[in-house]
Amino acid sequence: MRDRTENQIVLVMVRHGSVRSNREHRYLGKTDEPLSEEGIKELRQYKAREYYPDIDALFTSPMRRCVQTAGILFPSCTPCCIREWEEIDFGEFEGKTYMELQEDARYQEWIDSNGTLPFPKGESREAFIRRCEKGFEEMVKQVRKAKDSEKPKTAGMVVHGGTIMALLSRYCGGDYFDYQAANGRGYICICSWRNGRQQLTELRRL
Asked: How many helices (H) and strands (E) in the chain?
């Protein structure tokens, strides 16, 4: 009988470290902002506390805040960038805070829709989830192709908070906002596949 672990990948999903816009509570999507000094310090503290397990392969969003985080947390791994994992396009809300948007009727409409309406001149949540899913399928394909033993591979994913929410709400069910993660934190789970479809189980917070 074949060991069921041959059909599994351990996933370590980590949200990138803090940037200035995170501290200022601004909507940060397509702006390619680097980590802040405070964010770098916090990541190093988390790593020193051994929050992150060893990984066999590393995948990131191509944006600087994710690539920098990957280099701090997993310096011995060369990351493979998944372009589909860039953060959602906030459109005309990009760079703004709640206080700056509270008089904008379009923002109130977006809030009332539970975030399902497309951002003005930006992206809809459903379109964002679909592209994140496409990137996830590509990552799984690469890891499965590289598997050379019966032991489950462990893949690190350094991405955006939105990317984590998109993937977990798609594969684990529940609401999009159920899966928010602080900077430098995230989730560990098991990815397996059945009849050509991925499923995520044994989800726990990192």
From this structure: 7, 6
